Description:
By secondary structure, this protein is α+β, with helices and mostly antiparallel strands. It is 42% helix and 14% strand. The strands form two sheets. Strands 1, 2, 5, 6, 7, 8, 9 and 10 form an eight-stranded mixed β-sheet that branches. The chain has a two-stranded antiparallel sheet with strand order 3-4. The longest helix has 25 residues, at 3-27.
Amino acid sequence: MTFARMTQVARLFPALALLFFAAQASAQPDYQLEKVVELSRHGVRPPTPGNRREMEAATQRPWPIWRTRDGELTGHGYAAVVNKGRWEGDHYRQLGLLTAGCPQPQTIYVRASPLQRTRATAEALVDGAFPGCGVAIHHVAGDDDPLFQTDAFAATRSDPARQRAAVAATAGDLAARQRALQPAIQALKQAVCLSEARCALFDQPWQIRQSKSGKPYVAGLSVMASMAETLRLGWSENLPLSQIAWGNITRASQIGAILPLLTANYDLSNDVLYTAQKRGSILLDAMLKQIAGEDAAPNASWLLLVAHDTNIAMVRTLMGFSWTLPGYTRGNIPPGSSLVLERWRDNASSQRFLRLYFQAQSLDALRRLQPIDAAHPLLREEWRQADCRVTPVGTLCPLKSAVRALSQQIDQQAVTPVSYASP
């Protein structure tokens, strides 16, 4: 090689090196997922025994008996949750949060509410994400977990008089609410009633009452919401159409038409701020401390909490976060849906961000056991505030300001330390 040629190559080397390192840098992701805290609702279940009695008294007819015991996770519900777990496991492997094969102890920690339907849902999620690995499901001994069943503990139990007053203040003109919901009320009435004489409840004025334990409820609305939820669950279970409102509901859109009753019932129960502060503060506080890295235990990349729609409702109320997914009404919490917090790191600046969203499958996807993939994604809505940015990995919000905003409504007097010790 001549001297001139060597000089020319030497001059090109820095430029080639810059191109090489630029290509290497562009191959690296801009953001890295570090941790996930997920609060999931259980999967599809039949009505609970108490709800069944109320619905049958209100309509004066027996409601269909499912193959699964009342209140417990069904086989169809298990399969739908496995689909979700499988997708989440694959998704988090692609993002580098998980590795191939069975997880290490620090990879995932699962805590379920002690009821059968929540424990079985947790098993389905990890069966999907880590098939054959036997991931441990943690739950407390007995029926009451201080993280989920907070009304069973004195420190987080609401005062009946204050709770009733809070419901009344939120309700405002209850008669006006009932008039505004007449389309949904009449759609439900036509679906479940044999005659006017047997369904007098549908025409009675709503009233705020209290149970023997002091829990306030809206008489009339609460049982209609139970009916709407039971019919939605029956649709999601893929029950024969003859068993869903006795053949009077044949399309998912008819389920959507009665779901406003569920939203209204949420508005006047678990979404009441006083109730949420007393019963949801400990759970939201624990979730935010985990995602912010302020709570050392459990040291897991994916903290999966499996509980109930009431838990999600109270947490989202404290967050000030709501959603309207396609086919559902405002704030609806379908079976198997989840509230997800993700902590991301900017690889260039090392700044950390929070991504918060709610996700669920559609009514028909649950009914058909539709596998989740790029062609059939989960329905999703993200939380955001003014300082958030839209990125290729989703809407990312500076971690500290996001946690500060989401924790403003927490009642610190209701917060107690959470133990994650194995039962």
